Amino acid sequence: MNFLVSKNGSTAFQYFSKTKTCHSRECLCSSHAFVCSLQDKDAEEKGFNKRNLSLVTSDLLAAGSQTTSTTLRWALLFMILHPEIQSKVHKEIDKVIGRNRAPTMADQANMPYTNAVIHEIQRCADIIPTAVPHRTYRDTELQGFFIPKGTTIITNLTSVLKDETVWKKPNEFYPEHFLNEDGQFVRPEAFLPFSAGRRACLGEQLARMELFIFFTTLMQKFTFVIPEDQPRPRQDSRFALTNSPYPYQLRAVPR
Ligand code: HEM
């Protein structure tokens, strides 16, 4: 983080400016695209300045690192608590990918069970239960309620992720929530861990790829178990900006 973001954004600027691979607008990444835009004549006017580069870079790092790693900590916790589900994931990986090549995103379409498990991890973990607060910029009305300009709006994502009218077993880890009778993957509308609307998570696509690749790679290589000398970890969460699992220990047994 220190490497990329200094007080005035110059570290990130110097780093990306030295990367000479970009001669067109097909830039390598958002920060690189930003640096290219800094060179435009009217850059400052459009907001492409070093201070904004610093803010955008730190936003993406802050929003993108803890969220994905916390979800993966939940993932491994659910796997050690539910070995029978873990074993079904192992079987699907062995069938579709095998043990010798790395998983790719192309595999996802052929792995409904693993995909369902990852979605159920996100639903149960509910890592950002109240999303990010927003403020109305004009008077508005929602389902008969008048909301004046300047009102702070806090969404309750838990209310949909654990909605008893949608989910068969809202408070249990049950991957079948995301499978139809034929075992095909389905995604109910109430699956909203990334929130909804214009200000929904900017990194959703990236996060989904990260979760699939990291989770599948770990499961391809290891079986995760509770160490013999450890108690069964608790499944409830502790809240500090995000819902995290309590610290737990696991043993990773090479497959
Ligand atoms: C499992 C992983 C993730 C989850 C569950 C998640 C969830 C969320 C949620 C609930 C919001 C608030 C949306 C709202 O207020 O309506 C949000 C905002 C945001 N997320 Fe994520 N996120 C994840 C990963 C990422 C990644 C990997 C990135 C980028 C690298 C990212 C970038 C952002 C940004 C920039 C915002 C603010 C968007 C805005 O205000 O317009 N997130 N995320």
Roughly how much helix do the residues carry, as a percent range?
A: 40-55%
Q: What portion of residues belong to β-strands?
A: 5-15%
- Strand/helix succession: HHHHHHEEEEHHEEEE
Number of contiguous helices: 8
According to DSSP, the number of beta strands is: 8
| Spatial strand order of the main sheet | 1-4
Average pLDDT, all residues? 89
**What is the SS-derived class?**
mainly alpha
Shape: globular
Largest sheet: 2 strands, antiparallel
CATH class: Mainly Alpha
Unreliable segments of 5+ consecutive residues? 1-6
Q: How far is the N terminus from the C terminus?
A: 34 Å
CATH architecture: Orthogonal Bundle
Bound molecules: protoporphyrin IX containing FE
CATH topology: Cytochrome p450
Number of domains: 1
Topology, please?
Blueprint: H1 10-18, H2 30-38, H3 43-46, H4 50-81, H5 83-96, H6 112-125, E1 134-135, E2 140-142, E3 145-147, E4 152-153, H7 157-161, H8 204-221, E5 222-225, E6 237-240, E7 242-245, E8 251-254
Antiparallel strand pairs: 1-4, 2-3, 5-8, 6-7
Helix pairs in contact: 1-2, 2-4, 4-6, 4-8
The chain binds protoporphyrin IX containing FE (HEM).
What are the defining features of this structure?
single chain; binds protoporphyrin IX containing FE; mainly alpha
